[in-house]
Design a protein that fits this description.
Blueprint lengths: L8 H15 L3 H25 L8 H5 L12 H12 L11 H16 L5 E4 L15 H12 L3 E5 L8 H7 L1 H9 L4 H5 L1 E5 L4 E5 L5 E3 L2 H4 L10 H21 L4 E6 L2 E6 L2 H6 L11 H17 L6 E5 L4 E5 L2 H12 L6 E5 L16 E4 L3 H14 L6 E2 L3 E2 L3
Parallel strand pairs: 1-2, 1-10, 2-3, 10-11
Antiparallel strand pairs: 3-4, 4-5, 6-7, 7-9, 8-9, 12-13
This protein binds inosinic acid (IMP) and magnesium ion.
Length: 405
């Protein structure tokens, strides 16, 4: 499999396309046009997808990259490239060719330029997006920007894989500083009620109340339509048993000193625990599990589920230090929110850090526009750009508050 599970076919395609200009030393003359060409390919596919008549399969981009996802908006790539190049001087570089990160940033910028002024729902992943991995929300500026968006009528939701059942306090514990900020910045009851938390990918939905506490919404209320397939308890337990047995086999084969966490809608494999140490005294994973081993476990689960004809929607992913398999995924999570709020895919933006095939944000791409960030600082930057695109420049906040740059 090499590293294919960690790459992104669309970004690789663009990188290869730009490589020729770089090698031929003609970046200044040709690269803007290349971005225009990609923009054209995306436009063709987006329009075909809007027609919804099956013609998307015939589009050039689909033929070049069969795995390419839906586009929910147009992507003004040429303009985004010019904006990025103006700042970072890509075309003046002689030794370093356009990188994965350059392209990721340009795609993000194009997406924000396309949707920033009209977005009605922003969904954000938790770990690595709103807060550091495994930590709690700390960034005051980020809190400020989120408050600013809520105040201006945008719905905001944390859509996280972390599943603590209907235990609101656990979620509140992770985003305490954000909830406190709602009070500090004088959000109205309606502003507060525009904030949601979807936990366990698509399993538990909470809404912020006037007292800045999270209140669970009964599932029959938010799962009234067809966004989330109904499962029986037997289907869920058979699914989780299968995943558990695959992971146990992997633990055996890879000599992993790990333990399992069994939840009603998920199974996790995390470092440490006495049992793993006893089973594999010479193995690894007692303190942390190597990335390659985490990836291997995820790919094994996906392969086994494919082989047995699994019908349950799920998400198996490498969480950076652990492996999780959740019943449900962020596609369903975001779609349920859209359904509940009456918001369309082209009005939704998901911000996340895990868009490779073994990450848990990828699935959101099929129901919303996305930006791919790598840390909360980048999330903050994206939100700032969105605020600017809405003409709510980050200058004033309330009557006399200033939002810092
Ligand atoms: P996210 O990045 O906000 O989606 O959170 C993913 C992280 O949440 C994982 O890496 C896990 O460490 C943690 N986590 C805690 N409970 C669960 C669960 O039930 N399912 C998946 N991830 C979980
Ligand atoms: Mg994450």
């Amino acid at each position: 499999m090499l590293q294919r599970h960690r790459s992104d076919a669309f970004i690789e395609f663009i990188r290869d396309l730009l490589y020729h200009s770089f090698v031929l030393n003609s970046m200044k003359e040709t690269v803007t046009e290349s971005w225009g060409y990609v923009e054209d390919l995306v436009r063709e596919l987006h329009e075909a997808q809007l027609r919804n008549d099956g013609s998307d399969k015939l589009c050039r981009l689909k033929k070049l990259i069969p795995s390419v996802e839906n586009f929910h908006t147009r992507l003004p790539l040429q303009e985004a490239f010019e904006e990025y190049n103006d700042k970072y001087c890509v075309t003046s570089r002689r030794f370093v060719r356009p990188s994965f990160n350059d392209i990721r940033h340009i795609l993000n910028l194009a997406q924000i330029n396309a949707i920033g002024s009209t977005v009605r729902l922003i969904t954000l992943d938790g770990d690595c997006t709103l807060y550091a991995d495994g930590k709690t929300f700390e960034d005051e500026k980020l809190a400020r920007y989120l408050c600013f968006l809520l105040k201006h009528g945008v719905h905001v939701a944390l859509v996280t894989a972390a599943g603590y059942g209907l235990n609101a306090e656990k979620y509140e514990g992770r985003i305490g500083k954000l909830l406190t900020a709602f009070e500090e910045y004088g959000l109205s009851p309606d502003d507060k009620r525009r904030f949601f938390v979807m936990g366990g990918e698509s399993n538990y939905l909470f809404q912020c109340e006037v007292d800045c506490r999270l209140k669970p919404i009964p599932e029959e209320e938010w799962n009234a339509g067809d966004a989330k397939p109904k499962l029986t308890e037997t289907q869920v337990s058979e699914f989780l048993d299968k995943c558990h047995s695959v992971l146990k086999q992997a633990q055996q084969d890879l000599k992993l000193r790990v333990r399992f966490i069994l939840k009603p809608r998920a199974i996790g494999m995390v470092p440490g625990g006495p049992e793993g140490k006893q089973l594999h005294p010479t193995g690894s994973g007692g303190k942390s599990i190597r990335r390659e081993l985490l990836d291997e476990c995820v790919l094994r689960v996906k392969d086994a589920l494919e082989q047995c004809g699994n019908k349950v929607d799920y998400c198996a992913f490498n969480g950076g230090s652990d492996v999780w398999v959740d019943v449900g995924d962020k596609k369903i999570g975001v779609a349920c929110l859209q359904q509940h709020l009456g918001i369309k895919a082209c009005e939704t933006l998901h911000v996340g850090d895990q868009f490779s095939s073994i990450g848990n944000d990828l699935k959101a791409r099929s129901v919303s526009a996305t930006v791919w960030i790598i840390n909360p600082k980048e999330t903050r930057y994206c939100l700032k750009m969105i605020l600017k695109r809405r003409g709510k420049s980050t200058k004033t906040f309330g009557p006399d508050e200033e939002v810092p740059e």
